[in-house]
Design brief:
The structure is a single chain. By secondary structure, the protein is of the alpha+beta class. It has two domains: about 100 residues, Immunoglobulin-like; about 400 residues, Glycoside hydrolase 144 (GH144) (Glycosyltransferase), CATH 1.50.10. The strands form nine sheets. Strands 1-3-6-5 form a four-stranded antiparallel β-sheet, with no helix packed on it. It has a four-stranded mixed β-sheet with strand order 2-8-7-4. The N and C termini lie far apart (about 135 Å). About 45% of the residues are buried. This is Beta-glucosidase. Pfam families: Big_5, Glycoamylase. It comes from Mucilaginibacter xinganensis.
Length: about 550
Amino acid sequence: MKYFKVYSGLWLLVILMACSKGKTVTPTPPAPPVPASFSFNALKVNGVYNGFTYVNVNTKPVIKISFNAPVNHTSVTGSVSLKTKTGTAATFSTTYENNDSTIVINPAALQPITQYALEVSTGLLSSANGSLQSSLAIKLTTAIDSINKFPVISDDQLLDLVEKQTLKYFWEFGHPTSGLARERNTSGDVVTTGGSGFGIMAIVAGVNRSFITRADGLARMQKIVSFLKNTAQKFHGAFPHWMNGATGAVVPFSAQDDGADLVETSYLMQGLLTARQYFNGAGVAETGLRTDINAIWNNVEWDWFRQNNQNTLFWHWSSNYAWSSNMQVNGWDEALITYVMAASSTTHTIPKVVYDNGWALNGAIKNGNTFYGVKLPLGPDAGGPLFFAQYSFLGINPNGLADAYASYDVQNKAHTQINYNYCVTNPKAYNGYSADCWGLTASDIENGYTASSPTNDVGVIAPTAAIASLPYTPTQSMQALKFFYYKLGDKTWGQYGFYDAFNLNTTWFADSYLAIDQGPIIVMTENYRSGLLWNLFMSCPEVKTGMKKLGFTSPNL
């Protein structure tokens, strides 16, 4: 049996060898070795490492990106790019250091205040043709060009220029049919009630500065007042937020806001009464203008907006939706003027209890806390947007003004100082905020609109915020004005003065103008220089009576 097993094994071997005879077996060659990948090692922009985000970069930076292996020069062109955030490519040259493991990137000339993305893709190869393990993205924001964009002029000349240029928004761009102020520079026929009130005050300032003649100013006022009296749609004497400047029909501000807006109406009345006091001539034209203004003013049913005699005023009423918005005008904000106008009416007045209970919330408008080193008498924490200290005080003179709740020059100066101190402190570390560049208020932002403040700060500075604060912080406001004009003027200054807003953090600059932001620039600049609009408005006998009735004291009453 043993011999049989051996014999069988040999026989099987012979058979196998016979089957493979004449056939060559070729061994499979080994796979070529895969080049080792390589990785990022270090980054420096102008000799400094600061992660992957750099601000205030000069226009010709030296950027060094190092890897843990030498790079293939021919792969650099297709794998390294430098573009603006809008996709425009920037020209640059490359050299090499550290045995080709460091790429040195030298941009030809970047634009100031521009955001760039420097990207290195995984298409970059090592000299051994290994692939870069992970792509790189480096964000560069270039610095402000410190060269003055316009010749330096005296402070008075600069303030004249700002007033005169900004006035063009209301004078040259006023609606051709009604003369009222368009909501913004892209609004077509849509005009704004409150912004028109600001614009009326701006025209008065322009006449007084001889930027326009008294005769031309009077003619424009006649056009505006005639339209308001005879054409514009009204609700219990009050005007809507927006209307069509050609037809006077309401343009809804929001879904149910298609009727009266009492706060916007109060801004309009503030402007009309100021114009009435200015155009005080004995001739037929100016006498007729005053008569028409009085008819509009006396027709506003302020007391009706108490909604069934409640001790507060309500912001809106609509013939379609009645009081459905149910928004009270109360607490410290931009609407002090609404209560002053209501109390000053000789035909539809309100008693003091409506002011105390509605506006002042029986004292709950008081704050008293300290923010950024400044004690704030009234309002929300950190003061809120700066238009709170401006819209009502285009006509109401806060100097020496007091009531049971606050001293209003102290209030407005504190509010503005907090806003300034916040921007200088810059707790969110936004690029550009400084003693030169400050001011948070309601304005356009990139792809939207918001009411900026220390508690709602998105990095956007609005020139109107600091400039219209000239009466409160003259030194700081003038410093900001000069910065906006001289250093940023190629991006911030245009046909109607300063554009609405900008964000140095994202290098966004608005190309928009808004009536409610342009108006305070002129009016508060003029109040700072001469007190003109304050003096006119506070000279109204009805205003003196109304403010005294509410408990105000002032040397101007």
